C-alpha cells in the first residue's frame, strides 16, 4: 500500500509544478519550486508541528514540577502528610510528563521523517521524468554525474530539513516562555544567561549562510566528480588500453581535493555548532549565578535546579535544534535551487506534433520539403540544408554520404530530436527506430527485443530468424546480459537492436546504419530477410555505407559536405551513376593470407547480484576507518582531548551544584568564582578543540577511503565492469561516500559526546546516591539486550537499503544512454514506471529502517521513564535520609538520562548502521587487482623497433573457469605489415586484441620483438601500443581535451591530426569547431574522432592497432595510416573488421596480410 500513497503524492506535486510553470510563464517570472512544495505539504506538515509544540510545553513544565518536589525536601517536615501527598502528586506529574515526552517525541519524528520521504520520492520522480524529456541542448548543459548527485545527495536534504524545520518557530516561543519562568524564579539575573543564548542565535544564522555557500560549491564539485567517475567507468577499456589510469587518478584526486576542502570547512562549522551546544550550559550557568550572587541573592537548591533545568530545556532547542534547522534549511534551499534549475532545462518536442492521422497502413508516408536545421546556430553552415523527398509505403530510401554529412541528423529530425529551422517535416503512421550505436539495457535478450510488447511466439520466431538471432547465445534468449550489453559483441548488439525495432510492428522504420557492425554474410541475411523481407510492406529509411545494397533501394539520398544533398529514384535499375559516388574508391585485388583457427563462442559473463555483507560490524572495520584518517599518535591525542573535555565539564557542573545545593558547605565567593571560571574556560577550550580535531580525522578518513576505492577500481580487471552495472559502482561513489563525508562524522562525534556524558552522569549520580546503581544495572542490561536485538535487524535492513539504491542509479544511467530509443518507441511511461518501481523498493527498505528505529527508540524511552519514576519515588521513600541538594542532583541527572541514554544508544546503533557504508567502500578497496603496472624487467627504450608479433599456442578466456574464447592460436605478424583480421560476429576478433593488451591474462606466449608481454608491466606494454577502439568514447569537455587529454601536444599538431583523420579534400569540416570548442554535442564528426584521433598520437613510435568494425567508407583515416607507415619505419598495423569491408580499401590502402577467424571447429595454417 505504500506505493499507492506515493503515487498519490507524486501526482499532486507534479500537478502543482505544472501549474506553477504555467503561471510563471504568464507572469513572466521564474517558477518557484519552494512554493510548490509549500502548497503541497504545508497542511499535513503543520499538523505535525502540534506534536513538537506540546512536547516543548511539557519540557518547560517538567522543571517547575521538579522544583516543587525539591522544595518539599528543603522544608521537610516528617509530620506534614499533606505536603507528602502533594509531593507524591508532583512526583506522579514528573513521571507522566516523562512518558508523554517519550510518546510525543517519537510520534513527531516518525511523521516528519515520513513527510521528508514523501518529498524526496516526489522529487526523484520529477527529476527522472525531466531526464526523459531533455533535448540535445539541455543534455549539453547537464551530465549524468549531476543527475546522479541530485538523486543521491540533493534529495536527501528533504529527509533532514523536515526533522528540524518546526524548531525555527518553536525555538523562539520556548525561549520566551522559559525567560518568563526564569524571571519568576531568579528575577533579572536570568537576563544574563538568556543574553548568551541570544548572542548564539545570530552566530548560528551566520553559520547557516556559510553552510549555504559551502553546500552550493560542494554540490557543483560533487557533480563534477561523479561525472568524471561516470566517464571513467564507461570508458574503462579505453583508459586501460591507453594506460591512462594514473592521469585520470590525478584528475579525480584534484577534483576530490577541492570538494573535500569545502566539506572540511562545513565540518568545522558543524564542529563549532556541536561544541557550542556542549559548552553553552556551563557558560550560561556560570554567568547567571555569578550575576545572581553579585546582586545579593541567596542561592537555594530549588531555585538553582529549576533554573538549570529550564536552561537545559531551552539550550537543547536554541543551541542544537535551532542551528540545525538553520543549517538544514540553507542546504535544502540550495538543493531546491539546483533541482529547479534542472527542471527548467529545455525539453524535446514530440514527434507526434509532426505526425498526421493515418487511415490505412498503405497510407503511411514521410514527406520532407526544403528542410533546414541546425544542431548549433553558432555554426556557419546548417546540419541539413534544402533537403526534400517523399517516401511512401513499400518504399526503401537509402541515405548515404561521408562522415558528418548529416545522415543521423536527418533521422533525428523525423524523430523530433532535432527541431527544424525551416521547411516542412510530415509523416503518417507510427515511427520506430534502430540507432547507430545499439542500446542494450540490463535484462534478458528477450526483454530487450520485446521492449514491453506482449510475446507472440510465431511472430517472435520470425523476427529472430530475420535478424539472425536464433543461435545468438548458448543459453538462448533468456540469458541475462550486462549493463550496456557488455556480454555481447558489437554485431550481436546491432542485431538485438534491429530485432527490437522489427518486433514493434510500426508503420515507418528509421534504420541508422544497422549493417555496419556485422559481417558480410549476416549483413546480407539482414538486408534480404529483414529489411527487404519482413519489412518490405513498410516505408523504410536506411542509413548505410554498404553500397552493394543500393540497387534494391527505391530512392537514394546522397548527402555530401553537410549542406549538399541529392535525391535520386533508382526506378529498379541495378546501376548507380559513378559521378554521385566519386568519394567511393575503386575495389582492388588483395593478396591475402588465410589462417583458420580453432574457436569457440564467447562465453556469457553473468551479471552478479550485488554483494551484501552479513553479521556484525567488526572492530577491525572501525580501526580501518580511523587509521585512514590519522596515525596512532593523533588518535591517542584525540582520546585524551575527549577525556579532558568531559572531565572538566562534569567537574564544573557537579562541583558547582554540590556547593550550591549543600548549605552546610561553606566556601568564599572568590574561591568559588575562580574555580568555576577556570573549569569553564578549560571546558570551552577542550570542547572546541575536541570537535574540530574529531571532524578533521573523520573527513580525512572519507577522503583516504575514496582515493583507495578509486585506485582499486582502476587496478581491477575489466571483467569487474562487465558483471557490475555502472549504477552499482556510482552508488558507492555518490551515496556511500556522501554518508562518509557528512552524516557519519556528525553522528560519530555526537555518539562519542553523548556516551561520555552518560558515563559521567552515572558516575556522579552513583557517587552522591549509591543506591541509584540498583536500578541502573538491570536497566543497562536490558538496554544492551535491546540494542543487540535491534542491530541484528536494522544492520541488515540498512545493507538492504544500500543495495536497493543501486538499481535506481543503474536504471537512470541506462535510460540516459538510450534516450532517443526510448522516446522513439514512446516508452517513457513504461520506463518511468520501472524507475518508480525501483524507487518504491528502495523506499520500502528505507521505511522499514525508519519504523524499526522508532520501535527501538520508543522502548528505550519507555525504560528511561521507568528509571525516572523509580528515582523520583525512591527519593520520597528515602526522604528521611536525603538532603535537598542530593535530591536535586539525583533528579536532574535522572531526567537528563531520559533523553540522553536513549539518544546515545540510538546513536551507537546509527553509527553501526552507517558503518555499512564504510563496509561497502572498504569492500571496493579490496577488489582483485590485475597484473602490476610496472615490473623490474623493462624492455629496451626503443622497444618495439620492428613490431614483430608472435602468438604461440595462445589460449584466452575472459575469466577463470570459463571455456576459452581463443584456443591454440599460433600466428606471426611481421614488421611493416598491415594485417586484416576478419571473421563472423562473435568469432573473437576483439578477443585477439584483448589478449595482446592483457585485459585478461592469456595462456601461452605472446611476444613483440622477442619480448614476452607477460613478463613486463601492463603500462610498459600498453603505452607502446596505440589503438582505435571499437566503441567511440568521448569525454565531456573541449575538443582539445578529447584530442590531447593531458596537454602533451601543440595546437598545430592537433590541427594536423584533424586534417589527416577527417580527410575531405584537404578541408577540415569543422566549421568554427576548433580544438578549444566543446565536444559535448551530437555532431557526427565527433563520433569518428572518438575512434580515429588517438592514432595520430601513438604512445610510442612502434606498434599501432585499429579495432573498428566499420564499413569501408568510414575508414577516412587510412591515408594517414599509409603515410605514417612510411615515416615510422618499423611499424606493424593490425586492422580488425567484419570482412568484405576490408576488401574495399580507401584511396589505395592495400592490406599485406589477411587474418581470418571463422566460427567453426577447424585448424589449418597455410
Which keywords apply here?
single chain, 1166 residues, alpha/beta, six-stranded mixed beta sheet, five-stranded parallel beta sheet, 31 helices, 23 strands, elongated, disordered C terminus
Mean pLDDT: 77
**Rg, Å, rounded:** 36 Å
Kindly report the spatial arrangement of strands forming the biggest sheet: 6-9-10-4-11-12
Percent in helix: 55-70%
Approximate shape: elongated
- Strand content range: 5-15%
The largest pleated sheet is described as: 6 strands, mixed
Strand count: 23
The parts where pLDDT drops under 50 for at least 5 residues are 572-605, 657-667, 1064-1085, 1087-1101, 1110-1133, 1139-1150, 1158-1166
Terminus-to-terminus distance: 70 Å
Helical segment count: 31
What is the structural class?
alpha/beta
